[in-house]
Amino acid sequence: MSGAMSWPFLRLYLLVLLYFSANAILIVIIPLQGGALGATNTTIGLIMGAYLFTTMFFRPWAGQIIQKHGSIKVLRIILIINGFALILYTVTGLGGYLVARMLQGVSTAFFSMALQIGIIDALPEKDRSQGISLYSLFSYIPGIIGPLLALGIWQGGMEYFAIVMIAIAIFTGVFGYSAKMDKAEAQPITKNAEQGVNMFNSFGQLVKNPHLFKCSVLMLVGSIVFGAITVFIPLYAEQMKNGNAGIYLMLMAATVVISRFTLRKRIPSDGKWHSNFMMGTMLLLALGAQCVSYSITGGSVFFYVGAVLMGVAQALLYPTLTTYLSFVLPQLNRNVLLGLFIAMADLGVSLGGVIMGPIADLFSYSTMYQICAILGVVMILFAYDRRKLFVGKSPSI
User: Fold this and answer.
1) Where, if anywhere, are coiled coils annotated (predicted)?
2) Residues 6+ apart with CB under 8 A from 234
3) Where are the domains of the chain?
4) What is the pTM of this model?
5) CB of 165 within 8 A of CB of 33?
6) Domain 3-383, what fold?
């Protein structure tokens, strides 16, 4: 196998799988543990949101620091921090969970940027979208069994939680510490590029650059919906007669994995804006949220159909936008601007818990997911762009 499926890249994808295994368990355990301790939805949302809010804060600097000091050196330090965070979960309560989520956020900012920048730089343009899709795919594979494992831990006793977290920390650290990267993939930035990357000036590009602005808004709103789903589904499912959060999250993750693998060659990789493709993706997002909202009345069929629709939307949105930006952003500060874009995804997931938690407290989970569906409809309109500069022929899927 060659290109995005060659052994060096498969090794990186396996490291991604190990790294994100812990989070697939934590997204179920933390809300359930918080609910058992009497925490409000607002508190649970803040704890869950702290992870990606911290990631968002550090992400724009990650690409610059990684290129200055080298991916492998940074990766090894990050894996130590991540291991400490996972162990912290096993010896603390909700307050410690907040600190651990923030430490995980710092680790993820550098970990994901190192791998994604390496994939983008190492692969030829025609394989770029496949590489990004496969990276995202392996980050979601743990979500297939993680939620069910989490429910098993919750029902069987939290003493198993400590064993699992420590085991993941050790295996990820050992596997990641032995990772290697070709010199061609780890070259430091040149003096000219270093001068061109002005971090604070780059923040203005979120508004000034039309490509970055459109992609960031779509990613931000889409991630708010994904975040609300992830954080509150374990609690919402308990209100349903035949709802099971583990099955929902497993089904959504499996859909993401299958969709990203089977549709990876269909994701546009030509640097053009495909309005119909993006509008269709946001339609799936809106329908998925609406099905989840209606399921409290319509039954579990709508609940699980919503998981599939949400999974397909999640599979397509991130790699499509990331690939598009990798073509249209200026080469001189592309890594920093990509970091800002990915930070919008992190911010969205964080806000999905922080903003939607109080709405669920004031009204209901169903109403909160209804609002998510409305946001998806608004983004369908926002994704349309009739300017010829951005429009290309979209492949059918």
Assistant:
1) none
2) 27, 28, 31, 32, 245
3) 3-383
4) 0.73
5) no
6) Growth Hormone; Chain: A; (1.20.1250)
